[in-house]
Structure formats: structure tokens, C-alpha cells
């Protein structure tokens, strides 16, 4: 889908696009994509950049088409093949692959019966040392060889002139020793020797190259090269494989081209997708399996330590968050508004809630208040990060390409008002406790040696449990429950306001113009049932990874010299939001800063109006150490962030300088958390 100006339909009648004059018009390839685009502008719905349907091939750019090519297309001269990426291939893979082919060729020559394969390996050794600008072809064996299958027939053919009618060049030398017919090829001793002695080692080597190159993403052309070689080239009869160098003066080749590679590195492969799934999410999926196996099989840490398991569990949350996001977007785009709203409300915050709830359960079982403080730090970190870091980073990156970016200040104002309301409601019990609570200090020293003089106290906090907790149970707890009911109600009112009564403030119109290339039927990547299954499986794996993360976070909390505040505010808060941050950056690069801002605002509002009330509700049924009373640092950081964000967003336009201000303030707050002492109870 693309953002288009109101004049998108000037080539059609004025009656068709009368509304385009006053609305921002979005053009979509099909109805499903149009529904997804519309959902992106709905408050409370997950914003998703990637397509949920397959884009028409003719609508894609030449750069993207090249990503999905099979490396069998011969292009015109594109300059020298000596590039940094090709040299990198030589250093990483080329030299030892070539050496391996030479060794296998020697082995096949020793077997005598496999000499034809020895010549093939010798040719491929030169090819894989530097495959760029060369071509591997599948050629036809002369009919006289197929019919007779004898060396005499080969002699007759050579007597007629040892040249190939297809290629105009000499017959490869590996055709000369052997005169086998294709029909009896696999029954010969040479094929048996090849499959037993040569092919396994080469297939294993190409498999390793394929995996390594695929994981590096930019080297995916090398992965395709190796996969096609192992799956096809090495399984062809040697007399049907021809390796040659392309020259500008040569006529077009008539034989079937199997491999033709020009570049080993393509930086645009970050756009590559497999069945609609980004290549990075595909590469990180095995990490989830490794994490689950190590976490539950090696429960006594015989193979790895707790910090490694914690790191793996945290990294596994990133691809799972991506799969959950894409599943939600796919279901919402293929369903009506009610189903989409239910799915977004139910699973929109599932990533964070699974971690918070498992951490609270573990803290309750161990009687450790530190887990509750970590959860509060993560909640605050998510709020501050989504208010400052996410929009600030999008402004900076988008501002590099666009000098000034504009956004819908009216819709941003709705989110800002809800943020003010939610922050005030969340921190109301904290302010109440500081007004009416009793200040208790762990240790005090008289600095003047006078009983009436000045005292220096440490580890001070407001005690709410004085007189058997009368203040907390009679005043603070009812306030917490009241706030926890009012905040979700305010969220529902915000949904009704933005989606029903005042939906016009988003100023969005999905064009139904029949533009060329935009009338295709939808071919969805994931059907509704498939997306639902992936959503449930990802949620289940997310719960397991969150359980492992909380299980192995204890050594980090007890042995680390870094403040627990900092760990919660940074790592635990922002890692699950990385897919959302990437979506925001992509929107900003397309000069659609409104969605970038909405991503951060929507997450921040959901933290205060949905996640925290759900945690309070959870503590009613499963008592934990979680109370809605935050430290002063959390209160000041959150309120200052919301005020600053509203000041920046007042005029509806921004540039990279304003984004830099937001990012710098965020890093200043991180420095404060880094040097802050650990919370009481840790």
C-alpha cells in the first residue's frame, strides 16, 4: 500500500473521488490490505507495516525482484566483479570450498571409475574459488552417445568434429573417458563411488555454507548458490554439466542455465521475506527452540549458566513478538471490526503481561519483593521508552530523509489526553501514600551530636502498614481498585470516541480507484485459522520463555553491580518492543510520522490503562508483592516524559532536532536509573 495525494484519481471522473479532496487517501492493492491500512489508523489496534497479502509481482521494484531470483538469469555487463562483497566471499568461503573440491577430485581420480566426476570437481573448484561472472549450464549429451552408449559412438561423434552444437565450443574433456548412456547412468560404478565418496562431503560443506550465509542475511545469494549446487548440480551426470566464463562478445547461451551469480552480497536482503515473514524473524526462530530445550532439559545448569539462559530467553521474545504482531494484523485484516477489536485487546499486550505475571508469581513463591520492583521498573521503562525513545528515534531517522515531517496533531492530541489521564490515575495511589503515609528510615545518624540537631538517614520509605496496615487496607487499596476500574473504562471511551463518534479526526480514506496494478484479488500469507494457530503457539512459547527468563534472572539481580532499576527500565522494558520500534522506523522513512507516534502512544496508553489494571486484578486472585505504589524516580520520570512529549507535539510538525531532544532526554533518564541505588527489598 502507498500513501497518495488527494489527486490520486484525476484521471477518473470528479464524482468518484470527491472525498479525496479533504481526506488523506491511501491506495491498497486489495480489500484485505485496505482493511489492514484502515486498522493501522484505529486507536487501540496494532500498527503493522508489512503486508499481510502477497504483493503482485509486477508492482514490485527491480531491486526486490532481484532478491527472489534463482541465480539463473544472465545479465549484461554490470562492471567489474571485483567488489568488497565478492572478496569477502573469497575470504569466508571461496578458498576452502575450492580446496575441498580439489581434494574430492583427487579421490575420484584414484577410484578410476569416478574419473569423470574428478574432472567435474576440478572444474567446480575453479568455479567456487570465484564464481562471479561464470555460468554453470546443463547441456544435452549428443544423440549418438545416448543411442549407442559405447566408446565407439563417442569416437564417431568426435570424428565429426568435437564441438557442441549448443555452445559452439569444444566438448568438455570429462565426456571423453566415459561413454555411458543417461538411462544406465546411475547403475554404473562411477555413480556409486561418487555418491559414497564425493557427494556427501561436498553436500555437507555446501550445507554449512548455506546456513552460515543465510544467517548473515546479506550473503543470502551465497546461500542460494550453495543450495542449488547441492540439490541439482552435484546430482547431474558429469557429462551434462558445463562450467564456462561469460564474455561480452559471446552470443546468448542456448543451454539451460543452472547458476549465474554476479554479487555475493546484497544489502537489500533485509527486505527479504519467506511466506510473508521477514528473514530476521525466520533466522531467530531456531533460537526459540534452543532456548526451550536448554531451559527445560538442562534445568541444573550443567551445559550453560543462568545468565546465558536469561539472555537467550530474552532474545527469543523478539521473534515471538513479531509472530504475535503479524498474526494479530492478519486476523484483524480478514475480520470485521468487532473481531479485530477483541483480538487486539486480548493479545495486544500479551508479550509484556506474560513476563510480568510470571515474575510476580516467582517473587510471591520466594517471598522476594525484588521481582515486584523489577516489574514496576519494566512498566515505567516501557512508558518512558514509548513516549520518548520510540517517537524520538523515528523523528531522527525519518528527518534524515525528510527535512520536515508533519503528523495529525488532532489524533496525537487524543492519545496525549489519554496519557495524561492514565499517568495521573496510575500514580494517584503513590501520591496518596506520600501524603498520608509515615516516613520510616532504616538507619539515622546525628551529625551535630545534639539530640535536637540534624540527623542523616538512609533507606527511607513511606510505611503504609502502620497499625496493622490500616492506612493501606482502608484507604490505599480501595483507591487502587477504583483507579483500576476507571482506567479501562476511560480506554473504552477513548476507543468509542476515536473509532465511532469522531473517527473523522484521523482523516483517512481508503481509495477504491481502479488504478493500474491495484485491482488484484487478495492472496493472504496467513489465513485466519493459520494466523490463530500461530498466535496461540507463539503465546504459549512466549509464556515458556518468560518463565525461563524469570527463573534465571535471580543471579543477575543478586550478583550484578548495575542497579535493578536500570535492568528493568532498559532490557526488560524495551526488548519486547523491538518489532514495534522497527515498524515505527519504517513508517517514518515513508514520511508517515503519524503512525510512528501512534505506535509509541498506543503502547504507553495500554501500559497504564490495560496492563497495570490487569496486574492489579491478578493480585486479587493470586496474592503477590505487587502494589500500585511506585518510587519517586518512576513518578518524576514518567510525568516529565509525558509533559515533554506533549510540548513537542503541539504544532503538528517536527524535524530531526526535536527527535534528538527526545532521545537525549531518554538517555539522561537512563543514566539516572543506572546510577540510582537498587530499590528496597533487592
From TrEMBL:
Bilayer disposition of the protein: Multi-pass membrane protein
TM ranges: 87-120, 192-222, 277-296, 308-325, 337-358, 378-400, 412-432, 479-499, 531-550, 562-582, 603-622, 628-649, 656-676
Residues in coiled coil: none
Keywords: Antiport, Calcium, Calcium transport, Ion transport, Membrane, Phosphoprotein, Transmembrane, Transmembrane helix, Transport
Pfam families associated with the record: Na_Ca_ex, YccF
Residue ranges of domain Sodium/calcium exchanger membrane region in the record: 309-427, 531-673
GO terms classed as biological process: intracellular calcium ion homeostasis
GO molecular function list: calcium:proton antiporter activity
Main localization category: membrane
Inner membrane component domain sequence ranges: 84-134
Domain of life: Eukaryota
Keyword Hydrolase recorded: no
Recorded GO CC terms: endomembrane system; vacuolar membrane
Signal peptide: none
Subcellular location: Endomembrane system
Protein's name according to its UniProt entry: VNX1 protein
Annotated source species: Pandion haliaetus (Osprey)
Lineage: Eukaryota, Metazoa, Chordata, Craniata, Vertebrata
Gene: Vnx1
Amino acid at each position: 500500500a502507498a500513501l497518495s495525494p488527494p489527486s490520486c484519481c484525476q484521471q477518473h471522473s470528479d464524482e468518484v473521488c470527491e472525498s479525496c479532496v479533504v481526506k488523506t487517501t491511501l491506495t491498497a492493492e486489495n480489500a484485505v490490505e485496505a482493511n489492514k491500512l484502515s486498522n493501522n489508523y484505529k486507536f487501540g489496534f496494532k500498527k503493522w507495516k508489512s503486508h499481510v497479502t502477497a504483493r503482485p509481482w509486477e508492482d514490485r521494484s527491480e531491486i526486490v525482484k532481484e532478491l527472489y531470483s534463482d541465480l539463473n538469469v544472465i545479465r549484461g555487463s554490470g562492471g567489474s566483479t571485483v567488489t568488497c562483497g565478492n572478496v569477502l566471499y573469497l575470504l569466508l568461503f571461496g578458498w576452502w570450498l575450492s580446496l575441498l573440491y580439489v581434494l574430492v577430485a583427487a579421490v575420484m581420480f584414484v577410484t578410476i571409475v569416478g574419473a569423470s566426476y574428478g574432472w567435474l570437481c576440478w572444474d567446480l573448484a575453479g568455479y567456487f574459488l570465484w564464481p562471479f561472472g561464470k555460468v554453470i549450464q546443463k547441456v544435452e549429451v549428443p544423440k549418438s552417445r545416448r543411442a549407442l552408449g559405447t566408446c565407439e559412438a563417442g569416437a564417431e561423434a568426435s570424428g565429426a568434429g568435437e564441438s557442441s552444437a549448443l555452445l559452439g565450443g569444444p566438448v568438455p574433456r570429462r565426456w571423453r573417458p566415459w561413454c555411458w548412456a543417461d538411462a544406465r547412468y546411475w547403475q554404473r560404478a562411477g555413480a556409486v563411488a561418487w555418491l559414497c565418496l564425493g557427494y556427501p562431503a561436498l553436500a555437507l560443506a555446501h550445507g554449512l555454507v548455506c546456513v552460515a550465509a543465510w544467517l548473515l542475511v546479506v550473503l543470502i545469494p551465497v546461500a542460494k548458490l550453495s543450495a542449488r549446487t547441492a540439490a541439482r548440480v552435484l546430482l547431474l551426470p558429469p557429462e551434462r554439466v558445463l562450467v564456462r566464463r561469460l564474455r561480452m562478445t559471446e552470443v546468448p547461451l542456448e543451454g539451460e542455465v543452472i547458476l549465474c551469480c554476479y554479487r555475493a552480497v546484497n544489502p537489500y536482503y533485509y527486505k527479504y521475506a519467506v511466506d510473508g515473514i521477514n528473514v530476521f524473524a525466520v533466522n531467530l526462530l531456531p533460537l526459540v527452540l534452543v532456548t526451550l530445550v536448554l531451559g527445560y532439559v538442562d534445568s541444573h545448569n550443567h551445559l550453560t549458566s543462568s545468565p546465558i539462559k536469561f539472555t537467550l530467553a530474552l532474545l527469543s521474545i523478539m521473534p515471538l513478538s513479531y509472530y504475535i504482531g503479524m498474526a494479530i494484523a492478519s486476523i484483524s485484516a480478514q475480520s470485521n471490526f468487532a473481531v479485530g477489536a477483541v483480538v487486539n485487546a486480548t493479545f495486544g499486550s500479551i508479550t509484556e503481561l506474560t513476563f510480568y505475571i510470571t515474575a510476580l508469581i516467582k517473587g510471591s513463591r520466594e517471598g522476594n519483593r525484588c521481582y515486584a520492583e523489577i516489574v514496576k521498573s519494566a512498566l515505567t521503562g516501557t512508558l518512558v521508552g514509548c513516549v520518548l525513545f520510540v517517537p524520538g528515534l523515528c523523528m531522527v531517522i525519518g528527518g534524515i530523509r525528510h527535512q520536515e515531517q508533519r503528523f495529525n496533531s488532532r489524533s496525537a492530541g487524543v492519545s496525549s489526553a489519554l496519557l495524561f489521564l492514565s499517568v495521573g490515575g496510575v500514580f494517584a495511589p503513590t501520591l496518596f501514600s506520600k501524603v498520608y503515609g509515615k516516613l520510616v528510615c532504616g538507619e539515622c545518624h546525628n551529625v551535630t551530636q545534639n539530640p535536637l540537631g540534624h540527623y542523616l538517614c538512609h533507606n527511607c520509605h513511606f510505611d503504609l502498614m502502620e497499625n496493622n496496615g490500616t492506612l493501606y487496607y482502608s484507604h490505599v487499596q480501595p483507591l487502587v481498585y477504583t483507579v483500576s476500574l476507571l482506567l479501562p473504562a476511560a480506554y473504552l471511551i477513548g476507543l468509542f470516541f476515536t473509532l465511532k463518534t469522531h473517527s473523522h479526526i484521523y482523516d483517512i480514506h481508503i481509495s477504491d480507484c481502479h488504478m493500474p496494478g491495484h485491482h488484484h484479488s487478495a492472496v493472504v500469507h496467513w489465513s485466519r485459522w493459520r494466523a490463530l494457530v500461530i498466535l496461540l503457539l507463539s503465546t504459549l512459547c512466549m509464556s515458556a520463555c518468560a518463565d525461563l527468563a524469570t527463573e534465571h534472572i535471580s543471579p543477575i539481580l543478586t550478583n550484578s553491580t548495575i542497579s535493578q532499576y536500570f535492568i528493568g527500565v532498559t532490557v526488560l522494558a524495551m526488548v519486547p518492543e523491538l518489532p514495534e520500534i522497527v515498524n515505527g522506523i519504517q513508517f517514518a522513512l515513508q514520511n508517515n510520522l503519524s503512525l510512528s507516534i501512534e505506535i509509541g502512544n498506543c503502547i504507553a496508553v495500554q501500559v497504564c490503562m490495560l496492563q497495570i489494571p490487569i496486574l492489579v486484578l491478578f493480585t486479587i486472585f493470586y496474592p503477590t508483592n505487587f502494589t500500585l505504589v511506585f518510587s519517586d524516580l518512576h513518578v518524576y520520570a514518567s510525568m516529565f516524559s509525558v509533559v515533554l512529549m506533549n510540548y513537542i507535539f503541539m504544532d503538528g510538525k517536527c524535524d530531526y532536532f526535536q527527535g534528538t531532544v527526545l532521545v537525549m532526554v531518554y538517555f539522561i533518564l537512563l543514566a539516572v536509573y543506572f546510577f540510582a541505588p537498587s530499590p528496597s527489598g533487592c
